[in-house]
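HUMAN:
Could you generate one sequence with tokenized structure?
ASSISTANT:
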Amino acid sequence: MSISTIIRTVIRFRFVVVLLVVAGILLSAYSIRRAALDAIPDISDPQIVVYAKWPRSPLLLETEITEPLVRALMGSPGVQAIRGSSHMGYSFIYVILSDPSQREQMRQVVQDRINAIRPQLPSDAALTLGPNASSMGWIYQYAIVDRQGTHDLRELRLLNESQIKPALQGVPGIAEVASVGGLEKQYQLKIFPPLLAKTGISLKQVITALQDVFQEAGGRMIEVTNRDYQLRGVINNDNLDKLEFLVVGRTGDGKPVYLRDIGYFQIGYDQRRSTADLDGTGEVVGGIAIMQQDQNVLAITRTLEQKLRQVRASLPQGVEIVTTYDRSAWIWATLRQFFETLVTELVVLIIVTFLFLRNFRTAAGPIVILLLSTLFTVLPLAVFDQTINLFSLAGLCIAIGEIADATIVIVENCTAELSMHAYVTSEEKRGILIRSIARVAKPLLFSLLIILASFLPVFFLEEREARLFDPLAFSKTFAMAFSTLLTLFLLPIVVMWIFKRETATSRNFQESAAVQLYRSALQRVIRYRYAFTIAGLLTLIPAAVLLSGFQKDFMPETDEGSILYMPTTLPGLPNREAGWVLQQMDKKLKALPEVERVFGKIGRADTSTDPAPLTMVETTVIRARVRMPRTGIQTPVGIKVKGPDISTIEEISQQIEGLLRGLAGTKSVIAERISEGYYVDVQNDLERMAKHGVTVDEAMSTVRYAIGGDNIVRVKQPDDTLVPLSVQYSPEYLDTLEKVRTTPVVTANVRSTPLGEIADVSVRKMPEMIRNDNGDLAGYIFVDLQNATASDYVDKARELLSKNLNLPVGYSIEWTGLFQYEAAARARLRFIVPFTLAIIVALLILAFKSVSESLLIMLSVPFAMVGGVFLQRMMGYPMTTAVIVGYISLFAVAVQTGVIMVIFIRDALANRTESQSYIDAVIDGSASRLRPKLMTVASIILSLLPITFSSGPGMEIMKPIAAPSIGGMVSSTLHVLFMTPCLFVIGEDIRRAWYRYRQSGKKEVYTLTPSD
């Protein structure tokens, strides 16, 4: 079926087409309401987190839990990598998956592996699987502030745990709500060691007696007075003050020993894992709402705000919930920026169309196709589970110019054809319009196919890079696909409406001063075509030099209107001092006039999605959490040192730190001080324990409870919350190392032995955190950069370390960070881009049946790149993946305009008269392409120019993508309008010279003149 037949059929059944379009509009509107919206794609690797809690040292956690779990999970099908970290009292095992679609199946696989080795793990360790969420899911944070100062941090934490947190966790799409900061209420039994020793009762007896208070007896049936009764026995513990009457044992002469005889009860707070501050005003309690993956951020935050309004109404007087971070604000700003860009595009189209065609109605064609192509793109995005985010919107923005190009060519061609027929009937007009559309529709549809093929490299990016750029590639490809369909099936109907009341234009554009000026310039250029062509080719040399000299990076930094400030402290900083340091930093940040609010935390929130150690400070979420899920490192460049021994790993790490500190581009470099955690280390000696008759349980209970103050039971409250109860010696007996050494170990045989008599008690430096990377112990080195991109820096650093660092046998270093993504993207693109260009050449040869003309069109690519390279240099952008995407988009437009120019010149040559020379026909064909080319260039450049001067949300991504198109359209225009005609004539020169050579049998140069 010919194009003309399709167009006639579309016009005949236009009401059906309109109905289908209306149905598509309604479906698209529905999809927008249901679509997942986010600021940026979640590029974190699909992962399952195993969260282990066990009140032991990192060394014991590593050997007893983390390492066995890593070993058990390694080799599981679908597992790409495993990373673990052991801290004091807890550990994380991150199972990185190969296929995100297999998450639920892999959760079951991980759970089965855990169950299989559970008997080999400590029985009192708690193992849980983290929620279906990543650290990119931190979409909302809040602080609880008491303006009247009538509630302390314990009460505010309890208010969050019992009232606010449960309400927010019920919001659909929320995986969990994590508390941060504040104090957790704790009942504390403080024991006086001399009194305990005097009674002859062991610490174990006291603990057992307390635990028994909260037990229940019974559970059987008894018969009383001919009726069955269930039996239940409990201790009334509603009033904990009565625990002072608890009999914990008896003296040697049989007298009871009450709890009050050896100590006292008080209400305190449990050991802290984090401290939070707001605006430097002091400690607050905060919360973090964590979204499930692949959800609609805007819908969830809207529901969160509604729920928070209900919660705020029930809060005590003076207590407020202050929003400290809201991802939706960035999303709304990004959407506003996109719609501003879209409106700019539409205004530019209207102005350009009117200025060139002198008819406002003609702008309807490009505008209708543009709007509907953009709208319909939502449908396949929803089908392919793609979120609508900054990158998908960027894809639409770069597609807009290409969509406008095709429709402008068709509308302009219809206008030009009608201008040559002064008076026509309606039927004749319809025939003219159908022929005009058909004449350019086939090459346009073919060039649109080339544009679709040009984005193949983006689809072949590696998995991690694909998660970031797939939304852009999908949205751009779908927009172009819909524009192709709409151009074929809807645009003819719109064109008929546009020219329904038009009989003829006031004048023929080919007779205008602009065309005459172009013809005159083109004649001069063709006269000196060899010099002009050589000069044009020479411009490729400086462009190639500049291209090879660009710094390389993965992505421009995105600015969401907030910053991430992440200093770290050395191990051993007390909580009180850490809170003071955090407050002082936040106060200085808040004093800056540009800063609206500062919400900082030190330590980790109570969630498996927060692996931050106790020494790390964080104020915001996004930037670090884009980097950390895969690599575990929050700086642009990181190094993992792996090996079997922690002390050697630390030694190598510090050598690397010293070497890199003097390397150009290093802003700061910090190697983890793995072994610099401060411990009061109690090493019990079995021989000395035997001499004093001390059992292992008695010695270890003294360390765990008497000195450490561990919890022994959780007491249920009337509001169903659980408050821990701890046992510890009174603090005045533990506040110096010497007092710890003399801590009495009370045994069951009424003996009291100082701890120092059976153990070596000293302060030692040992690991505060141990990392496990795919089964190897690892230490991390964090490198921040200045005036250098990650890829260039790593190349220099690798060379430096290869010359100056000698690694022992069994040890290795692994470079990690964002540069990995850029290197992987470059490696893929180095292969895929030439392959894609070969596909485009093959398509051109198939269409034109001419290798020479296909190669001539492909010359548009390097010449388009010239302008892009020069503008990129002027703007100072490194060669990021975003810039590469911009070049790919530019190449597609350049090829499209080259195709149209070749089609017009071929038509002019095919229809030239006997009196018309070859050069005149080439000039006629080129001149007929002048107006649509100028319209395309004007619409693309003018619509993209505002992006280069904008500084709104998302512009960090849009600017590098837009720069190649703006600069490239200038050089591409010069190439298409002047060099393409020159190359046509040069080609004819060569053909005629070859023909004469064959005819005469000797080489003879022949050059065309205008008379030819």
